[in-house]
Write the structure tokens for this entry.
Amino acid sequence: MKLAIYGYDTIVGKMVLEMLDANEHIHLDEFYPLSPIPLEYDAVPLKGKNHLITFVNEFDFSKVEVALFLTTKDLSETWIPVATAAGCIVIDDSHLYSGAKGEDGKATVIASTINPFKIGAVDATKVAALPHATSIEIAAPLNELVHDFEVRKLVVTALIAASEHGELGTQTLARETTMLLNGQGVEVVDFPAQLAFNVLTRVGAVDSTGMSEHERTIIEEVRALVPDYSGPISLTCIQVPTFYGHTLSVQVELTTDESLEDVKDSLSNNPDLIFEEGIKELLAQLKAEAEDAKEESAESSAGEAAGATDELMVSPVTCADFERDAIFLSRLRKVGPGTYDFTAVMDNTRYGEAKAALDLLALIQKHRKAH
């Protein structure tokens, strides 16, 4: 495959390069890192080679089969039409075609772990629009439950990490935290209120109905990803002062009263949905591998983690150490007839964006080979 990446130096872009470098299943014949400014002598290392950075204004998109856009909406709006006109398939992570915008025929909203059957539609639209990380985190368990049961209602409270807003969010949180810890005041500029040591009760502007544009977009994307569900979705997005990792509190109501074990079995059908016992097994495996390799540092780290499994806390910080890109589920419980609660934690930038982009790239590669 011949690939270009616009936004290789963003938070997600750096993760994509790291994961792509270690990926043995995606084979690249040519690779072009693209930049909005001319950098004639700079290069990006990937798979043992240095690849010169190309000024996007001078790049011929007909040279590549796929282009990853990991940049802003305005840049995507400028260059995606140029890329698709050259016959290039675009994987867009800027959310230019988010929500209802992706339903007008300009893009296909797709996540390879949820609706991979839509890959054929990308041949026509030329744009595979990655949904928001929150949409993937909601749609993945919902898709399994809808497949096995009739879902009547879905209620979600989403705790959104600062990295949802890219470097603007992480840098703002870091700056405000440093200033406050040093006894200095902060000037609120890019957000409606202080991020550090604070909880914002909305993400984005709220309309006359009390719903934010971000929440409306997420709901539209979830419906696009799981079209078999037509029931109500109640979603509240709250901004929390964490750098990475979205956390969901989910309540799902079924039309039938099912056992807790049956609901858990349904959710476990997706290998990317991992419960606490799965995490404990993973930690035990890491410990065994460390002992086999007789690496003292790895053995100590894995042993400490495994020793804490009796009181395992599924959180954005602890899940980042599990060395597994997944959505971690916990606290599954039955709270009434046909009504179940659970929490979900996910690294939004790594799993929800970088891995989602690479999974989609692999899916496109497989589809093109088959046809």
Observations:
- Residues 147 and 288 are 36 Å apart (CA to CA).
- Residues 350-370 form the longest helix (21 residues).
